[in-house]
Amino acid sequence: MEKIVDSIVFRRMTHNDFDKINQRGSVYQAEGEQAGGGGQGYIDFPTSNVTIDNWNQLLGDPTSFGAQERPKWTITMNSLGIENAQDILISKRRNASVSITSQKLPEASTRGNRVFAWHPNNSFPVNYNPDVDNLVVYIIKASDETYWAGWFLENEAPRNWILNDELRPLFIEESAGVIRPTVRTLFDTDIKKWPFYFDAQTIPNQIKTDDDVEVDLLNQDISPKLSDIDSEPYTPEVKERILKIRKRNKKIVRELKNLYEGKCQISGETMTFKKKNGEFYSEVHHLLPLGESGSDSYANAIVISPLIHRMLHYAEVSEIDLNKIVDDKLKITINDVQYEITWLPEHLETVRKTLED
Fold first, then answer.
1. What domains does the chain contain, in order, with CATH numbers?
2. Are the beta carbons of 90 and 55 closer than 8 angstroms?
3. CA distances (Å), origin 68, targets 115, 130, 230
4. Cα(10)–Cα(8) distance, rounded to whole angstroms?
5. pLDDT tens digits, one per residue of 265-274
6. How many CB atoms within 10 Å of residue 9?
7. How far apart are CA 29 and CA 213, in angstroms?
8. What is the pTM (predicted TM-score) of this model?
9. Which runs of E-coded beta strand occur in 20-102?
């Protein structure tokens, strides 16, 4: 299943920690014996790398508190490529670290609750060479507030792994870290090793979600221009482009669409269509673009049809001066054709308050 990454927290395992929780304790197993747990039941994330604020952003408010009011979070953890989920406790064990608790193997401790993705039965390594291998465990928070555990054992990213500068710390950070992508990053929950990519794997004729459309409108056109393409055969230069996407206020979008019942403030019902559920399909446009210091507020947003939305972005549009609203309406021109934006009273009130401020 395809999901959007909200954030990633990761830990580069030390071989000492790995030894204690996974393969062997004070007594080494003979070859062929089943791995047992060691004397340590947790995986530490140093607060110098991943702060309590980072954990609060990742997990939300603590679900409980321990000694000295140290926060604890109980979350449902999914594992990449594995059907079953489990409840996992994450806690601030001491001032210097936050820990994934109960990570002994179940066969070594009655309190063992190893994250399924990190269990040897699910291909997690039973040993590795720390001089040449880099073992990283990570947790992805998806945009739908679900959590997914994964890992990899690579010193450098294989060539077939899709990577950008934002994901590169997974390979170069010596301890731990948190990543909050500004480029829309996706992952496949069915893939255990390196589930990340950047282009949505769309189904033919699939209608994009409202969020997808909003992201598309913020993206610049990076397709090659005909004038840039030589008629002679050539090997194209490969360039990495990073697109920064501003996170939108979904509450404003949802409430404005409900207020106008999905109808366009410029064209009413004439330039939109009804979805399968009977609701009108519409989009929300920022009168002053976010990229030009426009606010993500009710006063700066209007509900419009997808065609009008693209016209406002790409056509010749007259100046939009909210001070010239008369009788809940504002006249504008798009490619020399006159239109009117109409506000409902409760929406217009937010505009008036903004103008007064």
1. 2-197 (2.40.330), 248-356 (no CATH)
2. yes
3. 27, 36, 68
4. 6
5. 999 999 999 9
6. 26
7. 56
8. 0.56
9. 43-46, 64-65, 71-79, 82-94, 97-100
